[in-house]
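Holo model, adenosine-5'-triphosphate. Inputs:
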Amino acid sequence: MNSFSVRNVNQIYGEGTAKVHVLHDVNFEAEPGTLSLIMGPSGSGKSTFLTIIGGLLTPTSGHVEVNGVDYAKRSKKERDQMRLDAIGFVLQTYHLLPYLTVADQFKLVDKVKPEGNLSARALDDVLETLDIKSLMHKFPNELSGGQQQRVAIARALYPDPSIILADEPTAALDSARVTVVAKLLKDLAVKHHKSVIVVTHDTRLINAADHVYEMTDGYLTKQS
Ligand SMILES: Nc1ncnc2c1ncn2[C@@H]1O[C@H](COP(=O)(O)OP(=O)(O)OP(=O)(O)O)[C@@H](O)[C@H]1O
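Output:
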């Protein structure tokens, strides 16, 4: 079974003279055990695509199936549950809650999803890999951009999702950290059999990728 099957997706924002056709008949598949990159210039539709496959936006037309289930055939409540159970998001704005310490960001996940999260030991491994163990008592505004980005990655991985969707997960990281994050994403795909989809401008991630797609003016093409 494919984690994702996207068929003939179109997205149009606005109406009349303000109408913008952002995605054109997009088709895409992603299987468990693979890391796919979506590359392309700013404004080409990459984030819109990620938002649609993550079930956060219903496309103007077309179908998105996640683990064989069509979003369109589910109620909003069921879609929310599917997202909670299956998808880990790493978004451009890190969405860390300003009034919670790093440790409490993870505890909040436990409240929303009490079961099926990483064991304390597995979480410890992730924190160690991302070199953020010493930051647990800090608040987001005490962290650098790169530290916040790594905390956001760890938090997305904590619920142990089968699918990981990441929007520019390395934008705030230096080269050494990019290598660490690229290896982590690759290991999640290969060793943990997850489907990892990354929107990025970062050509340093290409070596880790199984498939590379290019988004140009809303048209998605497979490069490798
Ligand atoms: N809610 C919206 N309403 C109207 N237009 C939008 C909306 N969201 C995005 N757009 C437009 O759709 C186009 C694609 O935007 P999108 O953010 O998907 O591109 P992107 O490739 O992710 O860009 P970037 O790399 O800069 O994040 C842009 O022209 C943008 O202005």
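The longest strand covers residues 20-30. The chain has one domain: 33-47+75-222.
Archived with the compound record.
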